[in-house]
Design a protein that fits this description.
Blueprint (H helix, E strand, L loop, with lengths): L2 E7 H22 L7 H4 L2 E5 L8 E2 L7 E4 L1 E5 L3 H8 L11 E3 L8 H25 L4 E9 L4 H16 L4 E8 L9 H15 L2 E6 H17 L16 H4 L7 H14 L1 H4 L8 H8 L9 E5 L14 H8 L15 E11 L3 H11 L4 E2 L7 E6 L8 E9 L2 H17 L4 H5 L6 H22 L17
Parallel strand pairs: 1-5, 1-7, 5-6, 7-8, 8-9, 11-12, 11-13
Antiparallel strand pairs: 2-3, 2-4, 10-14, 11-14
Helix pairs in contact: 1-3, 1-5, 1-9, 4-5, 5-6, 6-14, 6-16, 7-9, 12-13, 14-16
């Protein structure tokens, strides 16, 4: 059994991380009734006997659960969210030695996060990463969670990503990155996002981009379903949006519902690594099968049924409808319509009591409505995990390497150019040591090149080409 480490950076990254650890504990508690430390738990947790006086405790490879410690690194340049984690219901899951924090924040400035705090905390970050890795028998993946619009998440988050590549080149680097909406209240978010994207393109193995506005729209849709009574009359107490009865007593925070969507994405993504199934998919199979070119590693994700995210008490969604929904634009975690664009490859990660024959039948049913590149018409990767989400019979996570991501990247570039033409707020970046104006031009060149690579692929849509020349992919 392999292990994974979650690196959560910035306010958004740590808030999503908080929801993830809450939900993954809930999921394992629902399956592991005897309180035994098993291989499934070892993927994200250590079992520690803390009764020893040295303060570190001893790792217990098997037996009864003593104290579970998350395989996590928490980084934020403001103390608020991290301190809240250490004082909240999850405080025993984390260790103060796993976190790095400051008090002043990054001021919504990528350069402060990357150039200033990155160099200032480099050795401390590396030390914690190494110690966390030493507790793993077979470290397979780092999951980096960050936002793109702020300073710490975008700047320090991508700095950590480059450290991971240098220090652990053989370990996969999956990034869950939350992109700002067009109405974002951080005026410099286009700068931060484009500067961060250059690092994601160069140093990540796989990126799951998630648009903030898409999360807002999905939560509003869920609330409407629950509120109108058309599809639901009640929300269960043991729900994913309100993940335990103890938490019902406190007022839910504004972003909890949105963060739970991202947390559920990570739960489903790692389900095959944690639980048994008739057709499991390892994380390395995702990159191997879904990323045909090293720079084109941005995967559009969709979750279905949507009520899995809220546990709305309605009849179970028909299985075939669940597959149909996964390819509709309303279920995408980005503002994109993959059915109108070109697929390079697609993965379907199913959980619950679903037969392989049902999976294959639905793929054959959907194929005629989906456009795949001519050299990968059968570009499907599938998995079946026997353990469904808590309270449900089945669910589906679809990951698509699809040219529809370029619309988000193009919008982001346009917003960047509007600011950069006026040289607005540039001085805030250039006064940071090591930050030069060439950083902006290199970042826009990288993004322009990425968009053009997707355009080249889109130009082949609908064509039947026998001998496809290799694309000119910048390495």
């Amino acid at each position: 059994m392999t292990q994974s480490v979650v690196v959560q950076v910035g306010q958004c990254g740590n808030q999503i991380g908080c929801r993830f650890w809450n939900l993954v504990l809930r999921e394992h508690a629902n399956v592991n009734k005897k309180g035994i430390y098993d291989e499934a738990l070892s993927n994200f947790f250590r079992n520690v006997d803390t009764r020893y006086s040295d303060g570190h405790g001893i790792n217990l490879p098997k037996g009864l659960i003593r104290t579970l410690k998350a395989r996590a690194v928490l980084i934020d340049m403001e103390e608020g969210v991290v301190n809240e984690l250490l004082q909240g219901p999850l405080r025993d899951v984390f260790d103060s030695k796993q976190l790095i924090s400051d008090v002043s924040g990054s001021g919504n400035n990528w350069a402060v996060g990357y150039k200033q705090y990155g160099h200032q905390y480099r050795d401390q970050i590396l030390n914690i990463l190494r110690k966390t890795a030493e507790h793993c028998d077979s470290l397979q993946c780092f999951f980096l969670i960050n936002s793109m619009g702020g300073g710490t998440g975008s700047g320090l988050g991508t700095y950590v990503l480059s450290l991971l590549e240098d220090e652990f080149p053989e370990v996969y680097r999956f990034v869950t990155a939350v992109y700002p909406s067009t109405e974002d209240d951080v005026i410099t978010s286009p700068y931060n996002s484009v500067l961060a994207m250059k690092e994601l393109t160069e140093h990540a193995d796989c990126v799951l981009p998630i648009e903030n506005q898409s999360l807002v729209d999905i939560v509003n849709k869920i609330n409407q379903m629950a509120g109108t009574g058309k599809m639901a009359s009640t929300i269960k107490l043991q729900s994913t949006l309100i993940s335990s009865q103890t938490e019902i007593k406190r007022q839910e925070k504004p972003f909890d519902a949105m963060n739970n969507i991202v947390a559920n994405l990570l739960l489903n993504l790692t389900s095959s690594s944690r639980f048994e199934g008739s057709l499991n998919m390892d994380l390395n199979e995702i990159t191997m099968n879904l990323v045909p070119f090293p720079r084109l590693h941005y995967l559009v994700s969709s979750l279905t049924p949507l009520y899995t995210l809220a546990d709305v008490n309605i009849p179970t969604r028909r299985l075939d409808q669940m597959f149909t929904d996964a390819f509709s634009k309303d279920h995408q975690l980005m503002h994109a319509d993959p059915k109108r664009n070109l697929y390079l490859a697609c993965a379907l990660m199913v959980r619950g009591n679903v037969l392989i024959s049902d999976l294959r039948r639905n793929i054959e049913r959907l194929k005629p409505s989906l456009q795949f590149v001519s050299w990968n018409r059968e570009g499907w990767k599938t998995s079946l995990c026997s353990i469904p989400p808590v309270g449900h019979t089945h669910s589906l996570l679809a990951l698509a390497n699809n040219t529809c991501v370029k619309s988000t990247f193009t919008d982001l570039k346009d917003r960047f150019v509007k600011l950069y033409k006026k040289k607005a707020h540039i001085h805030h970046y250039l006064h940071i040591d090591g930050m030069e104006q060439s950083c902006f031009t290199e970042a826009t060149d990288s993004l322009t090149s990425l968009i053009e690579e997707y355009n080249q692929l889109d130009a082949t849509k609908g064509q039947i080409i026998n001998n496809v020349p290799r694309l000119s992919i910048a390495m």
